[in-house]
Amino acid sequence: MKNKILFKEKCKICFQIVLRIIIVYIISIIVFELFIDGIFENTLANSVYDLNSKVYYWFVNNKWSIIIVYLCIVLAIIIFKSISNLFDNIYEVYNSLDDIMDKEKNRIELSDDTIKFSEKINNIKYKYLLNEKNAKEAEQKKNDLIVYMAHDLKTPLTSIIGYLTLLKDEKLLSKELQEKYINIALNKAFRLEELTNQFFDITRYNLHEMLVTKEKIDLSFLMEQLLDECYPMLQEKNLKCIINKPSQLYFMGDGDKLARAFDNLLKNAINYSFENTNIEIDIKKDEEKINILFKNKGNKIPEFKLDKIFDKFYRLDEARSTSTGGAGLGLAITKEIIELHNGKIYAKNDDEFIKFYIELKNDGCL
Q1: CATH code at 215-364
Q2: Which ranges constitute the DSSP H helices of the chain?
Q3: Which of 5, 159, 229, 366 fits as disulfide partner to 188, beta carbons 3.0 to 4.6 Å?
């Protein structure tokens, strides 16, 4: 495509040069015919003869030599002018590159001869400014997140130190009270571990490209394992998870990465489900793809935020909770994992239900 555009531009420049040469040559021939050949019979010729007969006869005798020299001079001037204009345009485009990073200039204006370059440069400028803005916003979100999470890390750590100190100093505590303090300290330690893992997620997500190692895996069995691991979380909110799936469904993929993606979706459904409701997971296979649906009953996601929930650190835009608050990376990482398997993921609202759809291409199935 780029080669075709470049070829068209070259043809355009060559055509303009040839057209100028032809026009100037035609005009030159007409002028010479009127002036040189007309010398024999018109007033101008007589005037030249009366003024200087030698000049007159010199023009007549060397008419074609003069024409050839004149046309060569005209050709040289046209070529020089065309090349000069071309270099002027190149220099103009070259100078305009400095304006790409100039935030004070909203648009770069070039001459008519370089209007196509102007459009291209302005597109580059727009993308550069947009990427810079997105990078700054992401960096700011990341910095804010680190501040928030540092505070969240301190909260369970303070509780752990406090309860362990009580267990150490208070020798006469009842067994029931000791067990209570131990359980509280253990739960706070689990929360501390979760937040620490989220810090590692931030580092890995920003510094390393995620790689997949594909092998034969059973998606149905994988989902059952994840459900067993999340059983305690379901019990806390009196939730029930129903899985509709084939007995076996093999797929060529990275089991660890897909487990992480599905685990993020399942925990997200648990965290944002109403208590005493059901979470449904439907796994279906057709000729072209595998369709996986995570469905839970909870507060609707505003329509304009359905795409943003897959952005890094998006949770910063929402109300935070120290009990369920995450790094805002879960859905972003999930999306990346699904896309690395040539699939896609999107979210929808349906009445009181929140639905996450996953599509995996059937060419990875066995």
Answers
A1: 3.30.565.10
A2: 2-35, 43-51, 53-61, 63-96, 115-169, 175-207, 219-229, 231-236, 255-271, 330-340
A3: 159
Q: Is 153 helix (H, G, I), strand (E, B) or coil?
A: helix
Q: How far is CA 333 from CA 44, 80, 198, 251, in A?
A: 89, 59, 12, 20
In the chain, CATH 1.10.287.130 sits at: 128-207
Q: Are 141 and 312 in contact (CB under 8 A)?
A: yes
* Mean pLDDT on 22-45: 63
Name the 3-class secondary structure at 238.
Answer: coil
57: amino acid identity, one letter: Y
For residue 10, pLDDT beyond 60: yes
Q: Pinpoint the residues of the chain covered by CATH 3.30.565.10.
A: 215-364
Share of the chain above pLDDT 70, in %: 71
| DSSP character string of 258-290 | HHHHHHHHHHHHHHTSPTT-EEEEEEEE-SSEE
At a CB cut-off of 8 Å and minimum separation 6, what does 20 contact?
78, 82
pTM of the model: 0.52
Helix axes 53-61, 63-96, angle to 10 degrees: 80
Structure tokens at 174: 């009842």
**DSSP string computed for 310-327:** GSTTGGGGS---TTT---
The fold for domain 128-207 equals: Helix Hairpins (1.10.287)
